[in-house]
Write a structure and sequence with these properties.
single chain; Nucleotidyltransferase, domain 5; globular; alpha/beta; five-stranded mixed sheet; 4 domains
């Protein structure tokens, strides 16, 4: 099937590969000519030529061959170019991003630019949260980035940012064998009164072993109804195949899990269990000794040995405190569910510490606002932080070895 000719040689946004022209001067020659002829006014064009040429060279290295070269070392095919405009301190650069077929490739120069763009969006979100006027945001952009923007452009950027964040929060989900749940609290002004609002966060591990941020929501509390609605939203977006849920022992979470995910195994965070133990120790019991005994249970090589050590611990403390012994029998087994899963996964699944670190990153950003003017502003900034973190996670090495499929 033949396609009708496209204007300017562009087909569906892609520009075809060009045959080399021996009469065309080298990019370095072009750059020198522009700089000699136009001085500083030619800087933007010079930079555009250099970046385009650098991206072409990087693609050749990635596919293992020069354009049109036949070699057994070739790992993919060049597939034309895609136009992309980038605003810089030198002005607008019209770039031609090299495309490939049969090989994943994206130029490092633009990848670094994307990271800067994400950081800039976070900065705008933070200023937006604090109620900075669009005119002042424009002035800050000029000072920090050297970009002349109008307040109308900033306003459109904020609207586009909200749309982008909403699209990310509502993106489709898929199979997630391991689900982590947690919440943190932020001060929000509602109807003229400052209250603590819960920021609910869900993180998952895919069957391939990669971690991903699944969702975020702002609620007035961690009550069951809020967790239930949050979980229902995840399921509506396609969440399925959950084998294990890891969280703290919060009544709202426990009740919501019974309502929305009955039958899925639950792992109580061992770190929080260790902290809870200290609240149940009588004055005549050493905190260090009791904590060491509990760690021995958690660090057992298998469930049978963990049960034996727990029974031994209960017998040890029964004469000292029957209430402590009863608490151990009732609560510690909830932290041993992880023994039902592959040994190479247990270290990551035994606690909620990964999500706790994520919450600390959120706190580092949210403390720029001592209090949020409304729930939407909290959700906006938290989403921006989580979206940036999730994008970074996609390029990191696997969080866990691949999760084995369910038995047939």
């Amino acid at each position: 099937m033949t396609h009708p000719p496209q204007p300017n040689g562009i087909l569906n946004g892609f520009q075809p590969e060009e045959w080399p022209d021996p009469t065309t001067p080298t990019s370095l020659t072009e750059v020198l000519e522009f700089l000699c002829e136009q001085g500083f006014e030619g800087m933007a064009r010079a930079m555009q030529l250099l970046i385009n040429e650098a991206m072409k060279l990087e693609r050749s290295v990635a596919i293992g061959a020069q354009p049109f070269e036949r070699t057994p070392q070739r790992r993919g095919q060049a597939n034309g170019f895609k136009p992309k405009s980038v605003e810089t301190r030198l002005g607008r650069l019209d770039l031609r991003v090299p495309q490939t077929r049969g090989l994943a490739f994206y130029p490092n120069a633009l990848e670094k630019g994307q990271r800067s763009e994400r950081a800039l969006k976070l900065a705008i979100a933070e200023m937006y949260v604090q109620g900075v006027s669009t005119r002042k945001v424009a002035a800050v952009m000029q000072e920090l980035c050297g970009l002349e923007v109008t307040s109308e452009q900033v306003s459109r950027t904020m609207q586009a940012l909200d749309a982008e964040l909403k699209q990310w929060r509502e993106r489709p989900l898929s199979e997630i064998p391991y689900l982590f749940l947690d919440a943190r609290y932020e001060k929000v002004r509602i109807n003229g009164v400052v209250v603590s609002c819960a920021l609910l966060v869900a993180v998952g591990v895919t069957p391939e072993g990669a971690r991903t941020i699944l969702g975020v929501s702002v609620s007035l509390s961690e009550a069951e109804v809020h967790w239930r609605d949050f979980l229902a939203g995840l399921q509506t977006r396609g969440l399925h195949g959950v084998k294990l849920i890891i969280s703290d022992d919060h009544a709202g979470i426990r009740a919501a899990l019974q309502a929305r995910m009955a039958g899925v195994k639950w792992q109580r965070c061992q770190f929080h269990l260790g902290k809870n133990l200290l609240d149940h120790l009588p004055g005549n019991v050493s905190q260090e000794e009791a904590s060491a005994d509990l760690r021995a249970v958690f660090n057992a090589p298998n469930r049978a040995e963990a049960d034996r050590l727990l029974s031994q611990m209960v017998q040890k403390y029964t004469p000292v405190s029957k209430s402590l012994a009863a608490w151990l029998e009732a609560n510690v087994p909830e932290g041993l569910t992880v023994f039902d899963f592959p040994a190479e996964h247990r270290r990551r699944l035994r606690t909620n510490n990964g999500l706790e670190r994520l919450n600390r990153e959120i706190k580092r950003r949210t403390r720029v606002a001592t209090q949020f003017p409304n729930e939407a502003s909290l959700l906006r900034l938290a989403t921006a932080v989580l979206m940036e973190t999730d994008e970074e996670w996609q390029s990191e090495k696997r969080y866990l070895p691949p999760v084995p499929p369910r038995p047939a």
